Structures are given as structure tokens and as C-alpha cells.
Amino acid sequence: MAVHLSFLLFLAGLTGIHSITTVNKVSVKAGGSITIPCLYGSRYMNHVKYLCKGYHWRSCSYAVKTNPQDSSGKFSISDNKNQRIFTVTIKDLTDEDTHYWCVVEINGGADTGVYFHLSVTRDMPSLYVDRQEITGFNGGSINISCYSRISGETGWCRLGRSCVTGSSGSIDGTSVTISARDPNVFTVTMSGLTTESSGWYLCHKGDLQMPVHVTVAEKPNTTTSSTPGTHVNHTDDSLTRCSDTCVQNGFIIALSLLIVIVMMTLLFWFVFKKVNKQTEAESSATATAEDEVKYSTVKHKRKPSKSVEDVTYTCVKHMKKPSHKGSDALSDVEVIYSSVVRPAVKQQKVKVTAEDVTYSRLAQQHQYL
Length: 369
Description:
By secondary structure, the protein is of the alpha+beta class. 19% of the residues lie in helices and 34% in strands. The protein has helices at 2-15, 236-292, and strands spanning 20-21, 25-29, 34-40, 49-53, 61-65, 75-80, 85-90, 99-104, 112-121, 127-129, 133-137, 141-148, 154-158, 163-164, 168-171, 174-182, 185-191, 199-205, 208-217, 222-224, 232-234, 317-319, 334-336. The strands form 6 sheets. A 5-stranded mixed β-sheet has the order 2-9-8-4-5, covered by helices on one side. The longest helix has 57 residues, at 236-292.
């Protein structure tokens, strides 16, 4: 297989495939994702780029193209024309994601591409990094840890340019040191970063490579003025030295604010409780006072009037029997009495005095016929 691939690469060199540069072999974990950079020549800047899947160059199939660009599925592609690098990302890796080609489309001629191999494993990859994207600041430094499970020569390379394989060196003016305190981990330190240091690099060990993208940004400056027209710039080093102290001070301030809030809450709660108790006591006292008040009804007694509403009188008539001539016998005068009705007064007692009742006598008269 290695002989066959070498033969294919030899043929590719004759047909111009050497004008594209990428990784050779990358160890990846099944189910994960990987981003592969493909460096191309300046003459291909405006050409369509695509990823081709398959072991054989003549029979590989399109996976994704920059025209039209599709990043919604398993494959995605992007083209950075300033750096002349297009990148392809493959997600949800399986055992079938093994053979791929970075290809530039040639109008009116044969396309040109370069092959790379993905070694998919169920275990941890044989060479990997914590993350493929890392950011540094202009003038600062960065550390990249490369984890490996294989033996072989270690190195740190810039894609398409020089490599550092010993303990120290430089790449495009940036200082590089490599330390390996652990046989399974080697750490790369890049110092004196510049904006030109941005680009794709490769962790290298044995026959495996792992691409890492480095972005170098300008330092964030904090500007203060001590006198009018005078500004002092604080660099990242001062911010770094302040970080631990600032975190501690922030924690202390937050804790102090929390304690004050709790104390104020308790104080308001006690005051509210005290006022509530006083209000309840006053309400209870008022209710007790109301219970002790006795109410009495003052009634004005009126003398019963001598109206028809109180006493009803009926007439008393004396009727005489018709006399019979020749009779000298004395007959009694017939008297018809009628009752005197006093209407009952409901639930009212009337005290009758001698002054209030007038008695009349009914004299019987005897007349002799």
C-alpha cells in the first residue's frame, strides 16, 4: 500500500499535484470531527476547491465544494484566499472516513489534488491535541501540548514551510522550543509572536501529524490618564499579574455585599415583625374595650291617650218596655250593657293611674209607669 501511494504521489508530481500541500496521516477518534488545511499556490486563488472522497484519484467522488459552498451536512469547506489555504471539516467520523483528496478544479484541464489519510480508532488517537484552534497576542507566547501514543521523532512544523525537530529553533522569526518531560506528551512553546505568525502548524511524531491553527491578535490595552494628555498603557503581563489578586478582591467584595444584603434583610424582617406585633396588640385592646361597653335603651313612657285607639266605648241606652194600660205593676227598667273593649298592646305594659282613667257611673233609674 505504501509503495502504491508513493507511486501515486510520483505521478501526481508529474501532473502538478505537488502544488497543493496538506497533512499525510492523521489519527482521529470515531464519532469526532477533524479539520484539515490544504495549502495551494497563488495561481489557484480564484479556482473552485473541493474535497474528494476515495482511495483512487480517478474514481473519488465529490464530498463538498466551495462553489456552491455547503456547510450544513457532514462536510464543510471554506477558502481563505489571503493565506491561500482552504480547509475542510469532517464530522461524525466512521471507519469509512479514511481516504480523501484536497483538490483544485482546473477549467479546461485536469484537476489537481493531494491525498491524505485518516486513521479512525475507537480508542484515544495516537497523536492529538487539546484543541485545534489557539489564540495568542502580539509579542506574547503560547504553549501547545501534543499527546502521543507512538514512538518516533517529534517536531513542530508550519504547513508548507520549515520545521523544528530538535529542542529549539525558529519559524519565520518566531522562537520555538520543544520539551518532553513526559514520554507521551511534548510541549511546544512559541515566543515573540507577531501577526505574521498566524497560520496552520503541525504537531509531528513518527508518521502522524495533527494540524493546529494559531491566531495572533493585537494586545488588548487598558488606557488610563494620570495627567491631562498623558496616557499609560498596561500590557498583558500586568493583567496577568493582576489576575489572581483581582479574582480574590472580587470574591471578597461579592461576599461582603452578600453579607450586607443578608443583614439588611434580617433587620427589615425584625422591624416588620415588631410592628406587626404592636398592631395586633392595639387591635386586641380595641376589641376588648368594645366588648366591655354596655348599651342601654332609654324609653320614654307616654301616658296613654284617651283616643279611640286605646279604649272603645259603646253607647248605653235605656229602653223601656211598652206599658200596658190597666196595669199598675212596677216593672224594671231594662238596661242593655255593652262591653268596653281595651285593645291589647303588644309587648308593652302601660301603667294606668287614677289620673289616667275616668270612671263614670251608670245610675239606674226606676221610672214608674
